[in-house]
Amino acid sequence: MTIRDNLIFKASGLMLNSSTNHVSAGVTNAQTGRIEAIDISTISSGLLVVHAPNAPTGTSPTLAVFFEVADEFGNWVLTSNATAISGAVLNSSGYTYGQITNGYSLGNQGRIRWAITGSASPTFTGVGFSLYGRA
C-alpha cells in the first residue's frame, strides 16, 4: 500500500487582522518553497485545515476562512461554504477545516481568504493553513 502526501499548500506563523484579507502571492508555500499563487490545476477537490494556536486579541473576535478560485477573467469565485469553510467561525484558539468541493471544477489558481470581525483591533496570531488536494 502506497501512502501519498497530498499536501499542496502550507503556511504557518501568520498574523491575520483586518489590514489584509487573503494569502497573497507574497506568502511562501512551505510545501514547495515557492512564492506564488496556489496551484490547484491538478486537483478537483480538497480539504483546507486552519490552525489558530493562540488566543485572539480584541473584543469579541471572530475568524471566518474561505477558499476561492480565479475564473478566466481574474475574478475570485467562492468555492467553499459561504459562512466559513466549516460552516462556523472561530472565536478562540483551535482548529477548523472544510471540504472544498461543492460540485465545482477547480481552476488553475486558488487562494485562501478570511474575514475578521470584532472590535479593539481583533487579531489572530500564529495561524497556519494546510491545503490537501485530490485529483
Name its key features.
135 residues; mainly beta; 7 strands; 0% helix; globular
Word description of this protein:
- It is a single chain.
- This protein is mainly β and 135 residues long.
- The chain is 0% helix and 52% strand.
- The chain has no helices and seven strands.
- A hairpin with a 5-residue loop joins β4 (57-70) and β5 (76-78).
- The chain is globular and about 40 Å long.
- The mean pLDDT is 83.
The rough form would be described as: globular
* Percentage of residues in helical conformation: under 10%
- Number of helical runs? 0
- Secondary-structure-based class equals mainly beta
N- and C-termini, Cα separation: 18 Å
The average pLDDT is 83
| Helix-strand string | EEEEEEE
Estimated share of beta-strand residues: over 45%
Brief sketch in words of this structure:
Helices cover 0% and strands 52% of the residues. With 135 residues, it is mostly beta strands.
Explain the layout of strands and helices:
Blueprint: E1 7-16, E2 38-39, E3 45-52, E4 57-70, E5 76-78, E6 94-100, E7 109-134
Antiparallel strand pairs: 1-7, 2-7, 3-6, 3-7, 4-5, 4-7
